[in-house]
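dumping this here before i forget
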Amino acid sequence: MDEKQLKQILATKAPAYLRSFIEIPRDSFAPHYSSFTDYLDKVVGYDANMLATIDQIIMRYRLGAVSKVMDGHYGTVLPRINRKGMIVGGNVIYYNTDDGRLLYKDAFIDHLYPWYVFDYYVDPNVFFGEHLYRDRQTAIVQEEKTALLGTLAYPDIDWLAVGAGNNLTDEMIKKLTGRQVILFPDDFCCDFWREHYGRKFKVDESFVHRDINQYLIDFIHSQHVP
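structure:
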């Protein structure tokens, strides 16, 4: 072991300014079916055309799976990828395959390296779906699940997710300047989003007291499922 390797191994014990930060590698996981994509298959009624669309979504969003199982459901890897194509964080979420219910959430980086030798580069100001963002109408939602259902229901809209209401930051909002953007908060973050971002963008409160996911599922069934 040379001196450089030793410094890397000891990096996390060093002060922050001396630590060895590395990029989260793109090949740390591969697109793969998971408990959530199994759930999407069920949502679309196993329609052949929609199953092909889900396959495309898996590749575009680089959705993956981990080997850890909870109640028989494999964790779904939901990476955050910036406009340069760098993986800068994300979540591993365990969904119930039957009803899409969230069972448990892990940090993405907890599944990358068993020693925790390195400090991975993480950017908290990146939306889920940001790497696919184009110059068209945009919907900001909380859950990654909602963004993916939205992509199935309304593919001509860019769906970006923040993961939780308080995760929407000023830095993220700055990226939306000049775009046609609608924010869809729930009851937890509605007041915050309205007060902080309502002057700049439309805050649609239609789903504060009803389930946006069920609305999207119903729309998918009405338009795409035989």
